[in-house]
Amino acid sequence: HRDLTGIGHLERHEILFLLAEAEQWVELNRQPSKHCDELAGLTIINAFFENSTRTLLSFEIAGKRLGADVVNMHAAQSSVKKGETLIDTAITLNAMRADAIVIRHGSSGAVDLIASKVDCPVLNAGDGQHEHPTQALLDALALRHALEDRGEGSEDFTGLTVTICGDILHSRVARSNVLCLQALGASVRLCAPPALMPAGVEAIGAQPFHDFDAALDGADVAMMLRLQSERMSGQFIPSAREYHHLYGLTRERLERCAPDALVMHPGPMNRGVEIDSEVADMLDRSIITRQVEMGVAIRMACLDVLTRKARGVPGWNDGQWV
Ligand code: CP
């Protein structure tokens, strides 16, 4: 079987394939009846060792809309609290004969570890500071739809400049998005306070900035990220007020971008810190709720494609491209 542990493991054509596969689910999700039996009889386990609203619920909804049996394991209520190791937890889930396991974990590498211990496809729903691949895929799908609505749609993002601003150091969303956006032809600028910018982002093709105004200059998309205070240890943590002053996306700052630039945020948002409410809620510019909508379709596509081998359906796992 094949896992989805990171955008870094995908070829450009595989990213485009997953985006194309998601379109049928965007359509289904807009119908009054959203159910199909594609994954009937399959069992999907969502094992979340960290909190989540969007990712957990959208994976659950995705599995159910595809007709699978979906069960959620919340680490806080599990035997992890009694000292069970990650490997023993993985072996336990495997013994229950899940057909796909979706993992969110606070430690980078935990998803790969679990993937190496189980017999079914594993989907990374966010692992530490490493990757959040379905977030980058849903961001790409939301961006593509927003551009199509403006008559600017194309298969990829060649010529587009995307500024990602926030706590880049701790952000798995930033990492997956840099890889995904660049694979699709976009130029990516990364902006953060010096203490929250990882070293060597130039090596992966991104342009680093500490000055937010300069980073926004002429950008087509401003993607804002929150400060992940739960992952900070020893770094300088700016106060919310100070951070907003230097790095908050205000209506005035948005004017520095290209005309009609789009605003994105993976959520959860801290309104008034990294983004002002009036910007987050701009109907003609903000695609934040569209990102959430696309999250269900992308997760349906990933669950469908990754379980094709087990279901005997040609697709990604067999190297056969539709
Ligand atoms: N964007 C995202 O991963 O949100 P959740 O933490 O709510 O899942």
TrEMBL record:
Binding site for carbamoyl phosphate: R54, T55, R104, H132, Q135, G267, P268
GO terms for biological process, alphabetical: 'de novo' pyrimidine nucleobase biosynthetic process; 'de novo' UMP biosynthetic process; amino acid metabolic process
Catalytic activity: carbamoyl phosphate + L-aspartate = N-carbamoyl-L-aspartate + phosphate + H(+)
Enzyme class: transferase
UniProt entry keywords in alphabetical sequence: Pyrimidine biosynthesis, Transferase
Annotated ranges, domain Aspartate/ornithine carbamoyltransferase Asp/Orn-binding: 159-305
GO CC annotation, single: cytosol
Family under the similarity heading: Belongs to the aspartate/ornithine carbamoyltransferase superfamily. ATCase family.
UniProt function note: Catalyzes the condensation of carbamoyl phosphate and aspartate to form carbamoyl aspartate and inorganic phosphate, the committed step in the de novo pyrimidine nucleotide biosynthesis pathway.
Annotated protein name in UniProt: Aspartate carbamoyltransferase
Species in which this protein is naturally found: Pelagerythrobacter aerophilus
